[in-house]
Amino acid sequence: MNNHRLYLDIHAIQTLPPSNVNRDDSGSPKTAQYGGVQRARVSSQAWKRAIRQYFADHCGANLGVRTKRIVDYVAEQIRALDPSVEEEMAMNLAEETLNNAGIKTDKKERAAKALFFLGKKQATELAEAALKKETDKKILQSILNKDPDIDIALFGRMVADDPTLNEDASAQVAHAISTHAVQTEFDYYTAMDDKAPEDQAGAGMLGTIEYNSETLYRYANVAVHELVHQLGDKENAVSALKLFVEAFSNSMPSGKINTFANDTLPQALMVNIRADRPVSLVSAYEKPVKSHNGYVEESVKRLFQELEKTGKFVEKPLCTLYLVQGEFSEKPEGKEEDNLRDLLNDLNQIGDWM
Questions:
Q1: 178 lies in the same domain as 91
Q2: Is pLDDT above 90 for 255?
Q3: Long-range pairs for 339-342 at CB < 8 Å and ≥24 separation?
Q4: What's the rounded Cα separation, in Å, for the pair 251 and 50?
Q5: Is the pTM of this model over 0.85?
Q6: Does residue 307 sit in the same domain as residue 211?
Q7: Which of 117, 144, 215, 285 has the CB geometry, 3.0–4.6 Å to 157, for a possible disulfide?
Q8: 339 lies in a domain?
Q9: What average pLDDT does the chain have?
Q10: Which domain holds residue 129?
Q11: Can you give the pLDDT at residue 60?
Q12: How far, CA to CA in Å, does 225 sit from each of 51, 149, 182, 304, 321?
């Protein structure tokens, strides 16, 4: 395996109708100041959660479980390996093994004191170690530090109590922000009581929901060389990258989605493979887009133009693949794809640069 660096950048322009996919502690859509104006914002945590959910719902890949109920999870694996072990005994074995590995648990709740990200294979091997009465901390921690599932490899794991169990994330996901200024609005709604007497007119409930609408710039990157190291071989890494790009494109945070049905797709998607460093193109929107005729077209144009400008500072991408809805006279140097499936198939060539 070569020791050189390789990065995948993924950029998207995506417009959302009235929606509130990511709320702050007061229920308002999250925002940020950028370029002197207020922008709509969707946090990286919200979209990473949506990506992980897409993995689980659509791809059937082996995925990690992030939970405080880690004792229950390992106990389930113990009983799957040996059904003769009673439930209480399995819980005791699981908790003792996790404690020996350095993971602190609340004895009363029989749960970890903080969320822990554990892969399916790691849980199975911990269960095998528990059945063998393994107590050596180094051996148990070696189980937790090898063979991470793809979401653990991509998004990492932090264990404050024992940093030796940390897993560095090979992916970075930016907070999505609108390419233009936004103003939060309010929806005043009423709900009627179906059983209200005829002489009691009026609503059974009143309320307001805050929302905004925006055209977002979304960005993420993956340190491909690190992902190869984590997953152990090129083929697994390429499969994980394709899955990540697909999920990045098709996932959507679920906040208030039943209220607003904001199930949109990107209007533009661009993937760059780089040998020097990852590059966000958010600077294309430091000067907010202004329009009374839609923001998407100008946002896509600026995205392509900004890619060209970065050539003054960094190396030209090894490869650029892009997919757009609509016609644009100026397009980046690279390959325009007919559909997402073709773009994903062309990502197989990443293996040639690993």
A1: no
A2: yes
A3: 340/246, 340/249, 340/250, 340/269
A4: 6
A5: yes
A6: yes
A7: 117
A8: yes
A9: 91
A10: 65-148
A11: 64
A12: 21, 16, 38, 26, 20
